Amino acid sequence: MQSRASISGATALTVILAHPVAHLRTPQAMNAHYDAIGHDGVLVPLHVLPGDLATVVQGLRRMRNLRGIVVTVPHKEAIAALCDDLTEAAREVGAVNVIRRDADGLLTGGQFDGEGFVAGLRGAGHDIAGCAVFMAGAGGAAAGLAFAFARHGATRLTIHNRTVAKAEKLAARVRAAHPRCDAQAGGADPSGHDVVVNATSLGMHAGDALPLEVARLVPPMLAAEVIMTPEVTPFLAEAARRGCATHGGAPMLAAQIALLARFMGAP
């Protein structure tokens, strides 16, 4: 296993851009993965405010030993416009969660949030195919999940967001790309759905509002979460108290780590 003390001028540098950064688990997971595969690389967190994003990205282009950038809240949508090229998935979703930096400084954005989330569900024995899914959120991560749910056979998708127009726009984009999935914007009531997902950041901080009407959660609904810290969010705690099965955010990251590393040039 490589020690962090062995970092040298030959080490491939990768970074994760976030605001805030204290809750992040990706650096630990990615560095453990680099160690496991014998890759001389390191991932470090960079705390970047939204107003500084373009300036930071311009600087990262000029770092010749930088191989890639992982992107998380709140930068996934804004950073897509700062890339030189996007993968088909990133272009469809309109958000980026990983960037490959080529030797000439060109940045290519990719999107693996949705595939990671669905893979995490499957690993826990939950299949999206044929399900009615309720999702709170319409931001970058939520968009990735929405397209993945439709791509993997969800028959119905209800998107709830505080900004209704944003939910309506995302639902229309999903319907256009995947007409077999009935994607619509909706209110905060998840009744009548098989899988209920929090794809917002609500629950990361003490005092956050709940993302939806938890009183409507009943078995056999599955309550699933994108947040990794805390491991049990208030949403998941309320779902469990009402007898629903729950699924935390950690499997989404675990399913993506190797994909993100390969996109940034690791074996």
- Taking strands numbered 1, 2, ... along the chain, how are they ordered across the largest sheet? 2-1-3-5-6-4
* CATH class call of the largest domain: Alpha Beta
- Structural class from helices and strands? alpha/beta
CATH superfamily of the largest domain: NAD(P)-binding Rossmann-like Domain
CATH domain fold name of the largest domain: Rossmann fold
Largest sheet: 6 strands, mixed
In what range is the share of β-strand residues?
Answer: 15-25%
The tally of domains stands at 2
CATH architecture of the largest domain: 3-Layer(aba) Sandwich
Brief overview, please?
The chain is of the alpha/beta class. It has 8 helices and 12 strands. It has a 6-stranded mixed sheet.
